[in-house]
Amino acid sequence: MNKEQFFIHKYFSKLSLNKQSLNLKNDAAEVDFGRNKIVISTDMMIEKIHFFKNDPPELLARKLIRINISDLAAMGAKPYGYTLNLAIPHRNASQWIKKFISGLEKEQKNYGLKLFGGDLSKSEKIFMSITIFGKVSKGIHLMTSAKKKSDIYVSGNIGDAVFGYLCENDKKYNFIKNKISISSLKKLKQRYFLPKPNLELSQALVGYADACTDISDGLISDLKKILHFSNLGADIYLSKIPISATLQSIYKLFSDKKKFWELVLNWGEDYELVFSMSSKKKKVFEKNKTHHKLFKVGSIRNDRQINIYEKDLTKIKLNFSGFSHF
Amino acid sequence: MNKEQFFIHKYFSKLSLNKQSLNLKNDAAEVDFGRNKIVISTDMMIEKIHFFKNDPPELLARKLIRINISDLAAMGAKPYGYTLNLAIPHRNASQWIKKFISGLEKEQKNYGLKLFGGDLSKSEKIFMSITIFGKVSKGIHLMTSAKKKSDIYVSGNIGDAVFGYLCENDKKYNFIKNKISISSLKKLKQRYFLPKPNLELSQALVGYADACTDISDGLISDLKKILHFSNLGADIYLSKIPISATLQSIYKLFSDKKKFWELVLNWGEDYELVFSMSSKKKKVFEKNKTHHKLFKVGSIRNDRQINIYEKDLTKIKLNFSGFSHF
Question: Do B97 and B232 fall into the same domain?
Fold first, then answer.
């Protein structure tokens, strides 16, 4: 449990003794406003913590919407609307806002999302947050209901975002930047700024996956939440983690392979799904929904252990502090 | 129109071309989640803009909830639940959060409010925001529907909060601080930190008031929004503005009476209601809901002028730049 989760568990959970909050153990709340259930989630992006002062406002807006959409994907909900909080420095506010707005506009169209309202203020540092509303059709995914004997899946390539970030911002990783093509580098950065929450798969998985979340803090860190809340463990196989062709080349550049995997599995911002599903449900899912690609990366254990295995099936000990905003 | 409103009108309104947003012309959105309509509003408090680093966390939490409750009062809605964003420095986070939580807990009880979820992060400066949800029973108040010939009312004393703030934080106002009793000073500060949104009156006024909002930016500034959106003007009588006994003493200490009224009418944070109502509706309201006290401060004009009158009914020109967060 990282410090953020510790604070939430220790202090905030006693304020949320209502069924709508789902005990703060999921990616969002599920609120019953009359006939329809609505998934509600909120996420912030703060200067110097989540991004840099000079990052393009349009990309920040797009990322802000997408990371919030990803929380809806984690729950299997459909985008509906959002409210926005934005605080920015006074200087060049007009220019900055204009660009920010164009990013919001693009993503509203992409996701069929409505802006309901918001609050605008000046501040020394840039701060932004969205509260997002999703509609529920058949049901939602929980993080508390992974089942013994289920397998563990991810929805797509892991680790591109971390290298997009590191190549851009950390000189230590120039050994990578200098060896990969400009177009590959651009793709990695794209994954960092413009994650693609897999809404369609997530909704398709409702009724099939027994637990699901989105990878925002790192594959292992987010999987750990599912396992913790479900009181289970996992076996994970490195050879089965899907990585892009660019990451396969980057892997070769690392003399310390452990370090490579620690970055890939621990850094987060992939915004792919990680979920568990029984082999029986998997068969039915594949029969009914054939066009989705799933990547099986391991399986659930009955005890609380999390084991990571090398290609040769020897256990490997990786350093997983897990990303925390504290 | 201040800069905040200018930005909202110029840039954000085109993103909100949906009926739920009420064209961003009100204190909140009204969203139809199935059978029930829900009022949604969001408000931020940012270090150095809305409060100081060392302000007591418990009071900040209580104020944060109350200013958001005030947006529900502006709309005539009933408190239901909220989501929270909180970003604070790493240092002493645990102690700070503990106190903050105790403030939230008190106000959740006061207002029968549920915490649905939230997001927690570290940051250099303290940042907090709430998105609040209110239930609608008979209907809501709008700011766009003030009527010709209606009178203008406020729900209670104006101006205590500004002097609570100034006596605490601005040495220029020591001439007041040194002349009033400690208990009076305490009351003023209380009004600054713990506003009392008038939910009961607001709900009672649904169907009677033709336009209503809460005073967060200043009586005149918020009234101006109603008048602007309703395409009307107003006559306001200083002698009719309700002020506390303490403010009556403070008034006597001012050699520049204009300055006194500029502070009282322009500074904001009163979190009382300002609304318009016809004399006919007023009579029915008083017959049906006798225990509410209303303060008539003026009346609607058919043109777009806003006139302020002295006791002797001469017009007075006050400097109303209106508080803006930009």
Answer: no
Q: CB–CB of A275/A146 below 8 Å? A: no
Q: Say yes or no: B261 and B167 in one domain.
A: yes
Question: Does residue A196 contact residue A155 with C-beta atoms inside 8 Å?
Answer: no
- Say yes or no for a CB contact (<8 Å) between A123 and B123: no
The string of pLDDT tens digits covering residues B55-110 is 999 999 999 999 999 999 999 999 999 999 999 999 999 999 999 999 999 999 99
Q: Give the CATH number of the domain where residue A284 resides.
A: 3.90.650.10
Inter-chain contact B49–A94, Cβ cutoff 8 Å? no
pLDDT in tens, B237-280: 999 999 999 999 999 999 999 999 999 999 889 999 999 999 99
Q: A169 and A304: one domain? A: yes
Give yes or no for a contact between B208 and B282, defined as CB atoms under 8 angstroms apart. yes
- CA pseudo-torsion sign A171, A173, A178, A184: negative
What is the side-by-side order of every strand in the sheet holding B29-33? Answer: B29-33, B36-46, B127-135, B78-88, B114-122
Q: How far apart are CA B165 and CA B143, in angstroms?
A: 28
Q: Global pTM? A: 0.94
User: Considering A100, A135, A170, which residue would you say is the last residue of a domain?
Assistant: A135
Cβ distance of A4 and B120 shorter than 8 Å? yes
Report which of B320, B305, B126, B156 is spatially closest to residue B228, judged by C-alpha positions.
B305
Shortest CA gap A280–chain B (Å):
34
B90 contacts in A (CB within 8 Å)?
Answer: 326
Is A220 in the same domain as A190?
yes
**Contact criterion met (CB < 8 Å) for B31 and A129:** no
The alpha-carbon gap from A246 to the nearest alpha carbon of chain B, in Å, equals 32
Strand pairing of A36-46 and A114-122? unpaired
Q: Hey, what amino acid is at A15? A: L
Q: Looking at the structure, do residues A155 and A301 belong to the same domain, yes or no?
A: yes
Alpha helices in chain A (DSSP H): 3-7, 57-75, 93-111, 160-169, 174-177, 182-193, 199-205, 219-230, 245-253, 257-266, 279-288
Same domain, B179 and B267: yes
Is residue A191 in some structural domain?
Answer: yes
**Which residues of B are less than 8 Å from A93 in CB distance?**
7, 326
Q: Which domain holds residue B272?
A: 151-309
Q: How many structural domains compose chain B? A: 2
What b/e readout covers A182-197, taking b as 16+ CB neighbours within 10 angstroms? eebbebbbebbbebbb
A157 with A303, same domain: the answer is yes
Residues 6+ apart with CB under 8 A from B57: B96, B97, B99, B100, B103
Partnered with residue A19 across adjacent β-strands are none
Which long-range contacts (C-beta less than 8 Å, at least 24 apart) are formed by B90-97?
Answer: B90/A326, B90/B122, B93/A7, B93/A326, B93/B122, B94/A7, B96/B57, B97/A7, B97/A11, B97/B57
Pair of tokens at residue A325: 């905003």
ipTM of the complex: 0.93
β-strand pairing of B36-46 with A211-214: unpaired
Q: Residue A195 — φ and ψ, nearest 5°?
A: -60, 155
Structure tokens at B213: 């909002």
- Looking at residue A10, the DSSP 8-state letter turns out to be I
- What distance lies between CA B123 and its chain's CA centroid? 28
Q: How many angstroms separate the CA atoms of A77 and A137, rounded?
A: 7
Q: Give, to the nearest 10 degrees, the angle between helix A245-253 and helix A160-169.
A: 60
Question: Is A1 within the bounds of a domain?
Answer: no
Radius of gyration (C-alpha) of chain A in whole angstroms: 20
- What average pLDDT does range A178-202 have in this prediction? 96
